[in-house]
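chain below, 115 aa
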Amino acid sequence: MTEATKDDFRSKLAAVPFGYSGHSLNRNLGNIKCFVNTINVGDDLGLIVEGDAIHGGFLGEYDFKDGYHTKAIERRFIVYKDVANQHLRSFVENRASCTKFKYPFEVSELGMYLY
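prediction:
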């Protein structure tokens, strides 16, 4: 994946079956850039929000398959929004794309939930 250029990704995303253009094309290009160039395999945690639950774990390799950006994730915790601190709640509630937490890991207080 890392050998592909931005133009390669742009062409693939704009073509059938995806057909992205404008804002959605740029958002998807940004997600790919984040997944491929910013996130560190095995070092960074991924968060998945399902209702009131925040699932998380260490991220694996990036893949773009069937129109979806994916990374393998080794699940390591579940924490509920009502017990998460303000910084973590704000982070998960205001994200529509791939983003890194702007504070040091300790600020998230997720260390106590890792298993």
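The longest helix spans residues 22-38. The two ends are 31 Å apart (CA to CA).
thats it, cya
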